[in-house]
């Protein structure tokens, strides 16, 4: 008589497989309870928060990826936000607007409030530029047109606040928006030429003699379109 041999190790109560399955089920139940207890934030509010801190126009695709929603849903939410900020259907017309620029969306001050904002900036801005602002201004002057990310790559630091300061002081300005990336390109302004006492960017001094060996310096007028201000 032959005895049948059965491997019952995986079927034993409290075995490794059963314990792993139990833990997985417990995690799923816990996560489900957390999702149920956490209120769902409307897509409109999520987009509003993202656009509030965005320095560059954001495409519908990038916004959809950020909030985990399909493009049609994002487009409808953007339309609702535009109508809300514009005071449609009895809502309060805001001092800012959500505007589509270069294939992306970004907050802008309403044109009829430009004077108010300009007065505030004039009163708040310091009389002298910081070292960081001077360095950023030099990068723009020699490498324009240039985007924030390109400036940050050269200086190896975040330059968002410095760029805003230079724009507010009228030393640099937005030139155009890249159609593919939505990145804003900056150039120096006429005001900078006036403050430097020069007529053209061609009169800027060579930067290579100021470097250790000159090998990494900019060539004269490299990347500076003739007469661009």
Distance between the termini: 101 Å
What is the structural class?
mainly alpha
What proportion of the residues form beta strands (DSSP E)? 5-15%
Q: How many β-strand runs?
A: 5
Report low-confidence residues grouped into runs of 5 or more.
214-229
User: Percent range for helical residues?
Assistant: 40-55%
Largest sheet: 3 strands, antiparallel
Average pLDDT over all residues: 81
Q: Strands of the largest sheet, in order across it?
A: 3-5-4
> In one word, what is the shape?
extended
Order of helices and strands: HHHHEEHHEHHEEH
Q: Cα-atom Rg, whole angstroms? A: 28 Å
The number of helical segments is 9
What is the topology?
Blueprint: H1 16-37, H2 43-53, H3 60-67, H4 71-85, E1 96-101, E2 104-109, H5 114-124, H6 131-143, E3 146-147, H7 148-155, H8 160-168, E4 172-177, E5 184-188, H9 190-196
Antiparallel strand pairs: 1-2, 3-5, 4-5
Helix pairs in contact: 2-4, 3-4, 6-8
Quick summary of this structure?
The chain is mainly alpha-helical and 229 residues long.
Report what the structure shows.
The protein has 229 residues and is mostly helical. It is built from 9 helices and 5 strands; from the N terminus they run ααααββααβααββα. The protein has helices at 16-37, 43-53, 60-67, 71-85, 114-124, 131-143, 148-155, 160-168, 190-196; strands at 96-101, 104-109, 146-147, 172-177, 184-188. A hairpin with a 6-residue loop joins β4 and β5. α3 (60-67) packs across α4 (71-85) and α6 crosses α8. The model is unreliable at 214-229 (pLDDT under 50).
């Amino acid at each position: 008589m032959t005895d049948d041999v059965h491997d019952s190790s995986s079927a034993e109560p409290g075995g490794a497989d059963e314990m792993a399955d139990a833990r997985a089920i417990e995690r799923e139940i816990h996560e489900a309870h957390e999702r149920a207890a956490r209120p769902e934030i409307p897509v409109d509010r999520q987009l509003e928060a993202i656009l509030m801190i965005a320095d560059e126009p954001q495409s519908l695709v990038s916004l959809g990826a950020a909030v985990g929603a399909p493009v049609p849903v994002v487009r409808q939410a953007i339309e609702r936000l535009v109508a809300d900020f514009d005071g449609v259907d009895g809502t309060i017309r805001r001092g800012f607007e959500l505007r589509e620029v270069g294939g992306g969306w970004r907050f802008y001050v309403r044109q009829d409030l430009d004077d108010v904002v300009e007065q505030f900036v004039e009163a708040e801005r310091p009389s002298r530029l910081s070292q960081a602002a001077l360095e950023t201004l030099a990068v723009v002057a020699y490498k324009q047109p240039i985007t924030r990310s390109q400036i940050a790559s050269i200086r190896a630091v975040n330059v968002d606040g410095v760029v805003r300061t230079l724009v507010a002081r009228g030393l640099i300005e937005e030139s155009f928006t890249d159609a593919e990336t939505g990145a804003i390109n900056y150039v120096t302004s006429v005001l900078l030429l006036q403050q430097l006492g020069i007529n053209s960017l061609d009169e800027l001094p060579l930067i290579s003699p100021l470097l250790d060996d000159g090998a990494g310096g900019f060539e004269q007028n490299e990347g500076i379109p003739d007469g661009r201000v």
